[in-house]
Amino acid sequence: MRSFIYFIESVFYNFIFRFLLWKRPKYDKKYRISICGIFKNESTFLKEWMEYHIMIGIDHFYMYNNNSEDDYLSVLQPYIDNGYVTLIQWTKEHAQMEAYKHFFEHYGQETQWMTFLDIDEFFVPRYKDDINDWIQDYEKYPVILVYWKMFGTSGLVKHNYDMLTIEQYVVSHDGFSTHKGKCIVNMDYPIAFYNEMTHHNTNIRYRLFGFNLRVGPVNMFKRFVIGPYSLSWLGETKPTIQINHYWSKAWDIYDEKRNRTDVFFDKNPKLNMDYFYGFENKNITCDYSIFRFIMKLKMRMHDIK
After folding, report:
1. What percent of the chain stands above pLDDT 70?
2. Are 185 and 195 in contact (CB under 8 A)?
3. Contacts of 179 (CB under 8 A, 6+ apart)
4. What pTM did the predictor assign?
5. For the range 2-9, what are the long-range contacts, defined as Cβ-Cβ under 8 Å and sequence gap of 24 or more?
6. What is the per-residue pLDDT across 41-51, written as a single tens digit (0 to 9) for each?
């Protein structure tokens, strides 16, 4: 029965609704594209993550600090002073979805596009240097899903703090995650609901012929994602973008995360070693797509002219 419903929805959205979409962003908001991120004790990785995303075209960051005990402010303060960061002190435990709702209610109308991105996730446009150039081909769609490419430890017991994260971890899953990614959302539309799927499969409300439709994302092939996250459309297989998800990093980083509270989960699933190996054992290929940005990022981070 559920498969039949998925089929009917897929036919409607992909063969009817897609041709009724006409509204495009006016870009009259304060920011063109922004990231909303929630973090906890991530100061070591914040600078690389922010410099990288500024480099590929992100205008602003709404950063929710979830009771960090490290020196995160010394990293973020220059970006706050330069207008790149709005810092929100978010003290509620295991309330990531509430933070996202808070963002939409208080800051959603400041930015044209936004995405809920974690500190271990990096957008990687494969043929465009700027994510704004990439998004031009998708402007009529309210929500765009970008699939994860999962990266593990690359066999490293200890993280090298003298190297970039994106430089150290190259061993990945073979292909994209078939069930998860992150969405880029046009803030002209209200988000339909806030639950765990908002984090990965954001839906919006779309007014059409007097009816309020719940509309999910299209993927990079401009196919509406209905049910299982189909990776292709009409035989097209060439990907144009991905999110590098550095899920574990080296064992010492992962082990430290296992023994602290999580911004979402009440009981940290990382304590289960089967959970770790379930991801690690799928790392059977190398992906260097992000390497084309490494030299430019090093120039930025070390202020090399």
Report:
1. 93
2. no
3. 228, 229
4. 0.92
5. 2/227, 3/227, 6/226, 6/227, 6/228, 9/226, 9/227
6. 999 999 999 99
DSSP labels, the chain: -HHHHHHHHHHHHHHTGGGT--------SSEEEEEEEEESS-HHHHHHHHHHHHHTT--EEEEEE-S--SSHHHHHHHHHHTTSEEEEE---TT-HHHHHHHHHHHHGGGEEEEEE--TTEEEEESS-SSHHHHHGGGTT-SEEEEEEEEE--TT-SS--TTS-HHHH--EEESS--SS-EEEEEETTS-B---SGGGGTS--EEEEETTEEEEE--B-TTS-B--SS----BTTB----EEEEEE-S-SHHHHHHHHTS--SS-SS-GGG-HHHHHHHHTTEEEE--GGGGGHHHHHHHHTT--
Tokens (6 digits) for 278: 């379930």
For 122-164, the pLDDT digits (tens) are 999 999 999 999 999 999 999 999 999 999 999 999 999 999 9
Lowest-confidence pick of 14-18, 46-50, 53-57, 286-290: 14-18
Written as six digits, the tokens of 28 are: 């009259």
Q: Are 171 and 247 in contact (CB under 8 A)?
A: no
